[in-house]
């Protein structure tokens, strides 16, 4: 059972896994949120015109548009 995998490991094995993960994470280059936040905002604003969640999808291009209607008799 994959959900119980952590229970099957010894405390030493769990600590080794955690240490290995921290060793990987410490190598990641860190950046200031003030810089990355500004870059993210600029990217989002530059892509807004093409975002279907903001501008919608034309009916003829909508793959999820219902093909037929419902007839109640």
TrEMBL record:
Gene3D superfamilies recorded: Transducin (heterotrimeric G protein), gamma chain
Q: Which residues form a coiled coil?
A: 5-39
Q: Which GO terms describe its biological process?
A: G protein-coupled receptor signaling pathway
Q: Which residues form the G protein gamma domain?
A: 5-73
Annotated localization: Cell membrane
Entries under PROSITE patterns matching the protein: G_PROTEIN_GAMMA (PS50058)
**InterPro entries per record:** G-protein_gamma, G-protein_gamma-like_dom, GGL_sf
Q: Which UniProt keywords are listed?
A: Cell membrane, Coiled coil, Lipoprotein, Membrane, Methylation, Prenylation, Transducer
Renumbered to this chain, region (Disordered) spans 54-73
The record's CDD domains line, in alphabetical order, gives: GGL
- Annotated membrane-spanning segments are none
Regions of compositional bias (Basic and acidic residues) in chain numbering: 57-73
Q: How does it sit in the membrane?
A: Lipid-anchor
GO MF, any single term: GTPase activity
| SMART domains linked to this entry | G_gamma, GGL
Q: Does the keyword Membrane apply?
A: yes
Question: Cellular component per GO?
Answer: heterotrimeric G-protein complex
Record Pfam families = G-gamma
Taxonomically, the superkingdom here is: Eukaryota
- Entry similarity comment: Belongs to the G protein gamma family.
The job of this chain, per UniProt, is described as: Guanine nucleotide-binding proteins (G proteins) are involved as a modulator or transducer in various transmembrane signaling systems. The beta and gamma chains are required for the GTPase activity, for replacement of GDP by GTP, and for G protein-effector interaction.
Known partners and oligomeric status: G proteins are composed of 3 units; alpha, beta and gamma.
The protein depicted here goes by the name Guanine nucleotide-binding protein subunit gamma
Upper classification of the source organism reads:
Eukaryota, Metazoa, Chordata, Craniata, Vertebrata
